[in-house]
């Protein structure tokens, strides 16, 4: 019998977020649960993020949802080395996490703050800003709560009272599960290297959406038990094995998720930690095996 240890539960940390057809064909690999999908980074279909700029535009590819429709979505964006956008705004607020390279996103007159892999930022709707990249390869994960995602000139800027957030990876606060006194933890877990969490946004209650980074140590094997409305997981760093009827190797930029009760079995076979970004609406647990 496989012994499982509860690492954390959704109403206890953000790790549980206690709370249509895509016109671009997206290749997905389903597990035994029809509400679960897995998308490898190699399966992403790319197209210009801003078609009006043609070849000068970054490339984007949806992981879940459809950024061109009136719906929530999560997508990858690739920037060429030396890319720097003109000042512009967006019609909706978005959240971003650096997966590869080094990115800057701020007021047009701000001093550059290059954010490496694992950094997090938000861009409020209507606020003028620029985005730049300076590594040979640059990739970010971007998500929106409603669409479509549009780029508009800065002279159409408007105030919506939201404030931008830029968090360099060096400023993330990682908390070991056993250090959270308000979680439902199994103290019999004697492993020396335990998963950690860094809270990013939202309120971890039974109904609301929230987001966090989760760090899985080398050799970790366990299961995400998702029981809420939405569970989205994106590999930000490292390589993860996803076990289903046929195991899949997920590299940075890959995604797995579900929209109902589902189990996601994962293993970190590598010698390095795996970093996941989790967006959840509803409860989920992480159980070690």
TrEMBL record:
Pfam families membership: DUF4437
Origin superkingdom: Bacteria
Q: Which InterPro entries does the UniProt record give?
A: DUF4437 (IPR028013), RmlC-like_jellyroll (IPR014710), RmlC_Cupin_sf (IPR011051)
**PROSITE patterns recorded:** PROKAR_LIPOPROTEIN (PS51257)
Residues annotated as coiled-coil are: none
Q: Name the chain's protein.
A: DUF4437 domain-containing protein
């Amino acid at each position: 019998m496989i012994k499982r240890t509860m690492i954390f539960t959704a109403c206890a940390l953000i790790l549980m977020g206690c709370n249509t057809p895509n016109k671009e064909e997206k290749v997905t690999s389903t597990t035994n649960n029809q509400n679960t999908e897995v998308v490898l980074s190699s399966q992403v279909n790319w197209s210009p993020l801003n078609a009006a700029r043609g070849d000068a535009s970054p490339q984007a590819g949806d992981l879940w949802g459809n950024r061109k429709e009136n719906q929530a979505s999560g997508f990858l964006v690739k920037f060429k080395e030396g890319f720097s956008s003109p000042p512009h705004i967006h019609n909706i607020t978005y959240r971003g996490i650096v997966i590869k390279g080094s990115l800057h996103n701020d007021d047009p007159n701000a001093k550059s703050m290059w954010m490496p892999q694992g950094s997090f930022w938000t861009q409020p709707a209507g606020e003028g800003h620029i985005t730049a990249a300076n590594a040979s390869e640059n990739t970010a994960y971007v998500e929106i709560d409603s669409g479509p995602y549009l780029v508009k000139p800065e002279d159409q800027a408007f105030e919506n009272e939201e404030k931008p957030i830029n968090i360099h990876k060096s400023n993330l606060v990682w908390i070991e599960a056993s250090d959270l006194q308000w979680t439902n933890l199994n103290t019999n877990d004697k492993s020396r290297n335990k998963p950690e969490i860094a809270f990013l946004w939202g309120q971890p209650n039974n109904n609301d959406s929230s987001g966090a980074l989760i760090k899985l140590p080398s050799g970790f094997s366990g299961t995400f038990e998702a029981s809420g409305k939405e569970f989205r997981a994106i590999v930000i760093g490292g390589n993860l094995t996803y076990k289903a009827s046929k195991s899949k190797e997920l590299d940075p930029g890959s995604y797995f998720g579900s929209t109902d009760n589902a189990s996601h079995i994962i293993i970190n076979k590598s010698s390095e930690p795996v970093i996941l970004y989790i967006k959840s609406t509803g409860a989920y647990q992480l159980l070690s095996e």
